[in-house]
Amino acid sequence: MSVQAVLGLYVHSIELVTYLLNLLQSSIALNRDFWQHITGFENSIRNYVCHVVNITYQRIDKSSLIELLGVHTEKDLSEWMRQNKWKETNPSSGSLLIASQEELIKTKNITEKIDFESVASILATYR
């Protein structure tokens, strides 16, 4: 898969999550009576957003994370940061370290063993 294809998937997934989050927040605002009876609903959505952020970002702007999580105070954001082990890299820049993606990616050495006889019989059928 090319780098452009991977970046396209990345941008698409973030746009989709942002769109769904905005749609959900609008629905919650319009139907507050309905949603308040579902215990833990908003935190379940935030957990999903945290999952997407964890697998997508190495660093994220604090204001973007506040918007994605839909939290209203620094205290709420700090609690989500603590739960997900996110670190503030430089308080003046407003940037957060989510995870080093290199540490999460596991490489595998793949060895293929193909003998000449199996390839020769395949090639012979296409002559």
Reading the helices and strands in chain order gives HHHEHHEEHH
CATH architecture: Orthogonal Bundle
Number of structural domains: 1
Q: Under CATH, the topology is which?
A: Arc Repressor Mutant, subunit A
Report the CATH superfamily.
Answer: Winged helix-like DNA-binding domain superfamily/Winged helix DNA-binding domain
User: Would you count the extended β strands for me?
Assistant: 3
Mean of pLDDT = 77
Which secondary-structure class do the elements indicate? Answer: mainly alpha
Approximate helicity band: 55-70%
Largest sheet: 3 strands, antiparallel
Description:
This protein is mainly alpha-helical and 127 residues long. It has a single domain, classed as Arc Repressor Mutant, subunit A (Orthogonal Bundle), CATH 1.10.10.10. It is built from seven helices and three strands; from the N terminus they run H-H-H-E-H-H-E-E-H-H. It has helices spanning 3-30, 32-35, 41-56, 62-69, 74-84, 101-104, 116-125, and strands spanning 59-61, 87-90, 95-97. A three-stranded antiparallel beta sheet has the order 1-3-2. Helix 1 runs antiparallel to helix 3. The longest helix is centred in the N-terminal third of the chain and has 28 residues, at 3-30. The protein is elongated and about 70 Å long. The mean pLDDT is 77.
